[in-house]
Amino acid sequence: MIMMLPFLTAVISAWFTWRGHRGTAMVWWGITAAIYVAWCFYHMTSSLNISL
Predict the structure, then answer these.
(1) Distance CA 9, CA 19 (A)
(2) Do residues 52 and 43 make contact, with C-beta atoms less than 8 angstroms apart?
(3) What is the share, in percent, of the chain residues with pLDDT greater than 90?
(4) Residue 40 and which of 2, 5, 15, 30 are 20 to 30 A apart at CA?
(5) Lowest mean pLDDT: which of 6-15, 19-28, 30-39, 40-49?
(6) Three-state SS string across the chain, please?
(7) Long-range contacts of range 2-7, CB-CB < 8 Å, 24 or more positions apart?
(8) How buried is 48 (Cβ within 10 angstroms: 0-12 exposed, 13-18 middle, 19+ buried)?
(9) How distant, in Å, are the alpha carbons of 15, 33, 46 from that of 27?
(10) Predicted structure pTM score
């Protein structure tokens, strides 16, 4: 479920854009960008556990 969160927030941002609420859409896009940054930071700093 957590992996769907950026896609959900991007869809919400697009919906507000289509409705003409530019400021609200930018806020949701900022939330989406923050989620992507946190997600990338987590995956770049965590150990990679591969069992071969």
Answers:
(1) 15
(2) no
(3) 65
(4) 15
(5) 40-49
(6) CHHHHHHHHHHHHHHHHHHCCHHHHHHHHHHHHHHHHHHHHHHHHCCCCCCC
(7) 5/35, 6/32, 6/35, 6/36, 6/39
(8) exposed
(9) 12, 10, 29
(10) 0.77
48, pLDDT greater than 80: no
In the block, residue with structure tokens 């923050």? 34
Tell me the two tokens of residue 38: 């946190």
Q: How many residues does the chain have?
A: 52
Record the tokens describing residue 13, joined without a space: 């941002």
Cβ atoms of 30 and 6 closer than 8 Å: no
Please report, as a single letter, which amino acid is at residue 51.
S
